Amino acid sequence: MLDQQNHRIGLLERAQPANADAGENDIRRQPTRTDAPEFPAGVADAAAGPAGPTFDSRLARLFGWPRRLIEAGKYRFTCYVFCHLWLLKFVFSVLRVVRPIMIFGKVAVVTKAEDIREVLERFDDFELGGVIEPGMPWGPFLMTVDWREQHKCERQMLESAVCPATDLHTIRTIAAEVCRSRIEALADTGQLDVVADLAEPVMVRIFADYIGVPPLDGSEQRMAHAMRHLAGIIMVNPPIDSPAWRDSRDDMVGVTRQLLDQLATQHTAGVTPITPRQTLFSRLVRRHGASNRPAWFDEDWIRCYLTGLVATGGATVIRGTAHTVDQLLERGNALERAQQLVRLLDQAEQHAADTSPPPKEEDEEVTKLRDALRLCIYEALRFRPMLPLLVRDCPRQTVIAKGTPRARLMPAGTHVIVPPLAAMFDAEAFPNPSAFSERPIESYFHFGFGPRRCFGKYIADIVLLEVVRALARLPGLERARGSAGQVSYEGPAPSSLTVIFDARDSGARP
Ligand code: HEM
Hints:
Blueprint: H1 2-9, H2 41-48, H3 55-63, H4 65-83, H5 86-98, E1 101-104, E2 107-110, H6 113-121, H7 129-132, H8 148-159, H9 164-186, E3 191-193, H10 194-211, H11 220-235, H12 243-265, H13 280-288, H14 299-313, H15 315-330, H16 332-354, H17 364-382, E4 390-394, E5 398-400, E6 408-410, E7 414-418, H18 420-423, H19 457-472, E8 478-479, E9 488-490, E10 493-496, E11 498-500
Parallel strand pairs: 2-7
Antiparallel strand pairs: 1-2, 3-11, 4-7, 5-6, 8-11, 9-10
Helix pairs in contact: 2-12, 9-10, 9-19, 10-11, 10-15, 11-12, 11-14, 12-14, 15-16, 15-17, 15-19, 16-17, 17-19
The structure holds protoporphyrin IX containing FE.
The site of protoporphyrin IX containing FE (HEM) has 23 residues, from helix 14, helix 15 and helix 19.
């Protein structure tokens, strides 16, 4: 079975000549299949399973434990810093005053909002592919493509599978329905886990019903864990052969096998128009059946991109949700504001639903209230951003912040850290940054800027809003006592955050 699958995938070699223009059908991008087809590099090792221990490998295991201990310690420390942001906040606030663009050997840290935005918008001068590739071993994905024209073509292909007019409604319905049923099931207990009981089930359902990747082995829990493990290796790469590394490889193989089975059973011959009822996966499969498709757009592209969406789109939203709720609970006035907006939004939606005949467009008041609640969510997330750091490589010498007193020459080969966390505490862009207040929505850095801005923002925005909305309706909502009431993590991905509320009927607290 595995051999057949290996035979079907083939190892892709994608040439990316620098500074070349790529047309939609550019044959230079045509994947070449090797004579000895196999899983893509990173998946192949994992699929093959552990090799039998040799004498050398046993010796290495015996004497390699100090190195493994140090690597495990480094991994734990990096995850801690990436999740509990007090240390990064402190360092960035000092640097912003002392040296806003700090270059230290081969690493540069940029701490002013304006300069961070400049780096993110200069696609050709600050590359992402080389930095992110080790975290995406299943094959090429949007984030590993540094060739501007090709990135644009591949992004357009992915975006062409989205039907905004209907998809937003589909996503909202799924998110609201899952939240409603989960809360209903737990209403008598007066306690729920924001991660395991709400955010994970919502994302697993969105992947199954909207994106088109059903739960691995039919298990929602297995799929939620796969999302955690795949997102985990992008955010903080674990040491080779560590438990986190092995979990991520197992799940990568699981997702790859499942997508191959799906691709084998989908009808790809001929083109039928894409329809709102299809998933992103089946819309892409239909596009693949078109005779005029670009040469690079093959079945393996669909497999790599769907795996990429599982990795970039599952645990990211779950982490964003956990951090938002954590920060709303941290600030009484913020939670009250969210609860007030949710009450008004519920009333406005009810009023619009009662109107006869029903309005064709979304009610203006409903849109206004949704935007206000989104602003409240972005502001909460500013204090604990989903992605506190972004990174780039500088392929050739260039200047940042040209024309300002802080301008610096960035040498070729510098790794540049561009932290949304630093940008959103820069008082020039976010006046009085320690206060929770309303700010222009376009000033937030949560979803990046420029050609690499987040593809899945439309999904994240709706899920964040619906989960916060469901929670804000609960009477007496607050954090659970002790460590259960704090966000806990597996690697960099959240694993739980427990809240309590007035249990139905009894009003008793657990
Ligand atoms: C709260 C949730 C999310 C946050 C905060 C977030 C944030 C981001 C950020 C900051 C970037 C830019 C990365 C960079 O410039 O290096 C990005 C890119 C990306 N995101 Fe998201 N994201 C979220 C959810 C999602 C979801 C739900 C999906 C898809 C299902 C997704 C898919 C992507 C993809 C494909 C890219 C790469 C875009 C490109 O290179 O053109 N994200 N995201």
